[in-house]
Automatic annotation (TrEMBL):
InterPro entries per record: 3-oxoacyl-ACP_synth-2, Beta-ketoacyl_synthase, Ketoacyl_synth_AS, Ketoacyl_synth_C, Ketoacyl_synth_N, PKS_Beta-ketoAc_synthase_dom, Thiolase-like
PROSITE patterns assigned: KS3_1, KS3_2
Name assigned to this protein: 3-oxoacyl-[acyl-carrier-protein] synthase
Annotated metabolic or biological route of this protein: Lipid metabolism; fatty acid biosynthesis
SMART domains to which the protein is assigned, alphabetical: PKS_KS
Assigned protein family: Belongs to the thiolase-like superfamily. Beta-ketoacyl-ACP synthases family.
Keyword vocabulary terms for this entry: Acyltransferase, Fatty acid biosynthesis, Fatty acid metabolism, Lipid biosynthesis, Lipid metabolism, Transferase
Domain Ketosynthase family 3 (KS3), first and last residues per copy: 1-428
Active site: C172
One BP term from GO: fatty acid biosynthetic process
Keyword DNA-binding (UniProt): no
Amino acid sequence: MRKVVVTGLGLVTPLGIGVRRTWQRLLDGQCGIVSIKNRSPEFAVLPSQVAGVVPEGKKKDGRWNAKEWLNPGDERKMARFAQYAMVASTEALSDAGWAPKAEDDLEATGVYMGSGIGSLDDVYDTTVAYEKGGYKKVSPLFVPRLLINLAAGHVSMRYGFKGPNHAATTACTTGAHSIGDAARLIQFGDADVMIAGGAESCIHPLAISGFARARSLATDWNDRPTESSRPFDRERAGFVIGEGAGVVVLEELEHAKQRGARIYAEVAGYGLSSDAYHMTAPREDGHGPYLAMKHALRHAGLKPSSIDYINAHATSTPLGDAAENRAVKNLLLGEEGKTTASEINMSSTKGAIGHLLGAAGSVEAVFTILALHNNTLPPTLNLNHPGDPPEDFDCNYVANTAQQKDVHVALSNSFGFGGTNASLCFSKM
């Protein structure tokens, strides 16, 4: 198999727009979760009134203003999730220094961009308009804005990339699946370069109502939004919905070397599995996540003892965090693993940005790559009392403050409704 490396990164997150800004704020322990109670009367009556929102403002301040970030006409043609994907892709391509013009290069460059839900706003608004006014109230752009694969389509059209044009939609595992699948397209020779990631923007009363009715959301910290997402903490009681996009430029190793590209990391392994258990709840023993991580290490040809850091999926739910914690310990402790749980370095960056659904896996993959590249572990915010029970939560969760550690191999985990799991393994070259 051909080796695949990461040569470019792009981010749109609740901590701001741009990799440098987001990463620095993450390491500084800042939080992008805010109150959404005053957005509208519909938000004010929801049981969960907090969200990880991409901050609006001026471009120079790393904030979102569509007219400053996008080309004329883009805002009308693209749903918000696709807009985020475009901005993150533009940053990643610039970071990679990849702007091909030759036909052979364009044909060897593809896009793999997914979303978990896509444009819920368009579905809701068009449904209401149709009920009131019928056929003529439906925009001709309704379907193109709705389709999840249009994020990849728009990026491909903007830059003229004629390689694979693909999209995943696997709930909260989407971003990780997009990166892993894109890496395999390069390994099998279908492309030399892939722009890959996930994007999401569905902070809407209907989406929040649905997750709240499923008892998935945090509801106890509406007056203290920055404390609401608390992975691995014994007071965790649900996730916080977020929005944004994460994009990486993946490249065949020799191709990257030939053009002198900076290499952040190698995509060393990619593991997939299914819980085969429940629509929304994980198995208590974490067997599905365990299998995904095990397969990622198998593909990488590495032993559990080699893992220096795990960016956990940990969404701040009682069942999910416990199951993943159990899976990680089952994998990393033992004959070919660590001696004690305290040697396991694992954090969840969702304490700072919330759960970005279809974008979570790719945003957190970027964080994992940066942790490896900079030998810095990002913190788990709001982790004051690990547990419950505390004796099971005895790893190093990088509580509240970033840590300097030598990182040579790292895993990034993502799991989704329907029991779908993925784990990405990154290593230094």
